[in-house]
Write a structure and sequence with these properties.
mainly alpha, 8 helices, globular
């Protein structure tokens, strides 16, 4: 399966390069502008990629599957939900950069429901809370944040229940 992923990654990279070559042939000015924008975005996300890679390496090296299962597995209980919620609240950067870390945690025992809790809580942007309070009121922001976190728990429980049912059917 890993070999298949490497091959598909090479095909994707080749397709992107071919598209840029065709774009340069058809309209070099627009293609150059698009390439500059792409490189600018890439430079902006490099620090986040580095952080996620460091987290992933640390998890692979220092944290055993038993610890992941204990704190973030299906039997982790409310503490697992709280850990996933807090981690989602404080995480920053593009969400797709966290997917590899979540995949690694899932391989080591993190439940699908807790992955959902993490991703759902990323909707709360702590640095933007003062601006939200200014525009919408403190009461609104508190209620919205509270209901977002509670909804993430409900969603996480539902996903855990549904994924267990799906595993039981396929087994």
């Amino acid at each position: 399966m890993k070999k298949k992923k490497k091959i598909s990654g090479i095909w994707f990279l080749t397709a992107v390069i071919v598209c840029y070559i065709i774009a340069f042939i058809l309209d070099s000015n627009s293609a150059l502008k698009a390439l500059k924008i792409s490189l600018n975005i890439f430079y902006k996300i490099i620090p986040i990629i580095a952080i996620v890679l460091c987290f992933t390496a640390a998890i692979k090296f220092f944290i055993s599957p038993n610890k992941i299962s204990k704190y973030l597995g299906r039997e982790s209980g409310i503490s697992g939900f709280l850990i996933a919620a807090v981690a989602g609240l404080i995480s920053h950067g593009a969400v797709y950069l966290w997917y590899t870390l979540l995949q690694e945690l899932h391989k080591k025992g993190m439940s699908k429901g807790l992955m959902a809790v993490f991703l759902y809580n990323r909707a709360v942007k702590i640095p933007l809370i003062p601006i939200m309070i200014h525009y919408f009121s403190l009461k609104f922001v508190i209620l919205l944040t509270f209901y977002t976190i509670i909804s993430s728990f409900v969603l996480g429980i539902a996903i855990d229940l549904l994924s267990r049912d799906a595993e039981a059917i396929t087994s």
